[in-house]
């Protein structure tokens, strides 16, 4: 393999994590559909100390197939945009969105409420992509980030706002809001550029 081929493979490798994570969500949903019982009990159960384990598992779990399908496209699109900066940056933003989104949901939601789904990560990626333009960096990168932010807001902005202000049954506006806060926090904490891996 030539040096150019190795470099191209390395550049493409940064996009593997969001694809692999989405594939894992589909495998988990399939297993949940086939096996007896339900995995949803591993989600975030608000105000229950044992429910904190859901911060790790909730993004992989979905209430049903339509729930997973609804999350899949925005997760993949926004996740790939984050992963364009490298696999380490993708995992860092994912961790911020999952932990801050999960803790916020656990604290703010009504006691005993069970929350599952990857939408907190989706909102986290959205928050990161929109707010990273404010983080210091080279001007050429900031212009590119601004262009990406405008496109992301144009495509997903209305859906994200309605998701944060949703009051319907079965919609965790808390997970959406705090996921976005986590992604935004990642944009400021990760001010120094991370080299693509």
Explain this structure to me?
The protein has 197 residues and is mainly alpha-helical. The protein has a single domain, classed as Rhomboid-like fold, CATH 1.20.1540.10. 66% of the residues lie in helices and 2% in strands. It has 8 helices and 2 strands. It has a two-stranded antiparallel ribbon. α4 packs parallel to α6, α5 packs across α6 and α6 packs parallel to α8. The longest helix has 26 residues. The two termini are 18 Å apart. The model has no long low-confidence stretch (mean pLDDT 88).
Jot down its keywords.
2 strands, single chain, 197 residues, mainly alpha
Round the mean pLDDT to the nearest integer and report it.
88
Order of helices and strands: HHEHHHEHHH
Individual helix count: 8
Top-tier CATH class: Mainly Alpha
List the helices and strands and how they pair.
Blueprint: H1 3-13, H2 16-34, E1 44-45, H3 54-57, H4 65-83, H5 87-108, E2 114-115, H6 119-131, H7 139-164, H8 173-189
Antiparallel strand pairs: 1-2
Helix pairs in contact: 2-4, 4-5, 4-6, 5-6, 5-8, 6-7, 6-8
Concise structural overview:
This protein has helices spanning 3-13, 16-34, 54-57, 65-83, 87-108, 119-131, 139-164, 173-189, and strands spanning 44-45, 114-115. By secondary structure, it is mainly α. The longest helix has 26 residues, at 139-164.
